[in-house]
Amino acid sequence: MTSSIAPGASPAISQQFLTFSLASELFAIPIEHIREIIEFGGLTQIPLMPVFLRGVINLRGAVVPVVDLAARFGRAATEVGRRTCVVILEVTQDERVLPLGVLVDAVNEVITVEADQIEPTPEFGARLRAEFILGMLRLSERFVIALDIQKVLSVEEMTQLAVTEELEPELAATLAVTDQGF
Questions:
Q1: What's the superkingdom here (predicted)?
Q2: Which of 1, 3, 140, 170 has minimal Cβ neighbours within 10 Å of its Cβ?
């Protein structure tokens, strides 16, 4: 399920993307990763999870973690509004396909982009980690950031972040005792 955008590839090749909003920014995800889009109906919070993991939902009997993309990008948590929804994606981890939900402010539309409308990831200036960006989609007078969902939702990295955040209070307490000379 890996997707790659090849800037300058054959003009006959086109890709479809789902566009969505986070705060006032527009992003896109390759359509092949999307299983479905559901209305936000609440979720079950799990204690001691990192801020970007908002909780889990029950999707036809399956427990699906929901990641707040805004928080994952180091921004303020998404405020739930009437257009807030959860995009259910399929992420590959160790040759297994895992369902993960992402919380977004609003889903906009599915667009078809030709290969010559795709620009490479910028070297600087993006407000995201470069490895999260698959490419820049040139649409009329603006650019839309296409996300590399495998990197954004890397289960390994998110697990490591969860462990790190959980250990931080213990580490701080340990360092405080050490600084006092005990």
A1: Bacteria
A2: 140
Task: For residues 41 and 166, give the distance between their C-alpha atoms in angstroms, rounded to a whole number.
Answer: 27
Q: Are 91 and 150 in contact (CB under 8 A)?
A: yes
Q: Which two tokens stand for residue 99?
A: 């369902």
Map residue 160 onto helix, strand or coil: helix
Long-range interactions of 54-58: CB distance < 8 A, separation 24+: 54/78, 54/103, 57/86, 57/101
Dist CA 109 CA 170 (whole Å): 45
- List, edge to edge, every strand of the sheet that includes 96-104: 34-39, 85-93, 96-104, 62-68, 53-59
The correct answer on CATH 2.40.50.180 for the domain covering 14-153 is: yes
| Residue from 16, 37, 56 nearest 106 by CA | 37
**Which of the residues in the chain have pLDDT under 50?**
1-4, 8-11, 166-182
- Global pTM value: 0.77
Q: Strand pairing of 106-114 and 96-104?
A: unpaired
Count CB neighbours of 102 within 10 A. Answer: 27
